Amino acid sequence: GAVVSQHPSWVICKSGTSVKIECRSLDFQATTMFWYRQFPKQSLMLMATSNEGSKATYEQGVEKDKFLINHASLTLSTLTVTSAHPEDSSFYICSASKGIGNNYGYTFGSGTRLTVV
Amino acid sequence: GEDVEQSLFLSVREGDSSVINCTYTDSSSTYLYWYKQEPGAGLQLLTYIFSNMDMKQDQRLTVLLNKKDKHLSLRIADTQTGDSAIYFCAEKYDSSNTGKLIFGQGTTLQVKP
């Protein structure tokens, strides 16, 4: 089955530093990847959609200069939280899909718990 | 705009059936999904249903779709303590042609022994 590996599982960083989260599709080519943010006991909030080789499409209210997304290959997308602050502490989850048409399905990573101190 | 609503909490006894309900607003949705999330983990796809279907059964899971009322439900038969988790319904928001999913708030299922 489709597997998505997300690293790191958790990270603690100091305010002002940047953190990179990786999302890899291990056994399929992910044309489209999605990045979500989840606050405790809340739903997943879509941050951005990225297609391989093109710029990410950000949802309204998400700062693209703050949350840098790179989807350089069909198996890897990265989310970099730049100049992190405590309010960026959250659970970040990626999702990968072979495409958006019909039902290619969505495979989720295991998530990254970011704590900014 | 698109919106997906779920009840927040459900408590059942082990062995009983659980029914988790969901309503959505986008009539153009083609696929609707149920995901399970255990503490500190990502989302695990449980099942999905295509919008031209009324029902789908997969072992202990039964999905019912009422497209007229935009109502989706997930029934878990013979609920076990291992089923305790948060369950999210999601619709594929086809109107945007981005393939993005819109999630409900999640229903916390508590299974008592």
Oligomer: heterodimer
Radius of gyration of chain B: 14 Å
Category from helices, strands and their pairing of chain A: mainly beta
Q: Low-confidence parts of chain B lasting 5 or more residues at pLDDT below 50?
A: none
Separation of termini of chain B?
41 Å
Number of strands of chain B: 11
In percent terms, what proportion of residues of chain B is strand? over 45%
Largest sheet: number of strands, sense, barrel closure of chain B: 6 strands, mixed
Order of helical and strand elements of chain A: EEEEEEEEEEE
On the 0 to 100 scale, the average pLDDT of chain B is: 91
**Number of H/I helices of chain A:** 0
Helix segment tally of chain B: 0
Query: Strand-residue fraction of chain A?
Result: over 45%
Identify the overall geometry of chain A. globular
Q: Describe the largest sheet of chain A.
A: 7 strands, mixed
Helix content of chain A: under 10%
Total number of strands of chain A = 11
Estimate the helix proportion of chain B, in percent: under 10%
Description:
The complex is a heterodimer of chains A (117) and B (113). Chain A is mainly beta. In chain A, 0% of the residues lie in helices and 51% in strands. Chain A has strands at residues 4-7, 10-13, 19-25, 32-38, 44-51, 57-58, 67-73, 76-81, 90-97, 107-108, 112-116. The radius of gyration of chain A is 13 Å and the shape is globular. In chain A, 37% of the residues are buried. The mean pLDDT of chain A is 91. With 113 residues, chain B is mainly beta. Chain B has no helices and eleven strands. In chain B, a hairpin with a 2-residue loop joins strand 6 and strand 7 (61-66). The radius of gyration of chain B is 14 Å and the shape is globular. The mean pLDDT of chain B is 91. At the A-B interface, strand 5, strand 9 and strand 10 of A face strand 4, strand 5 and strand 10 of B.
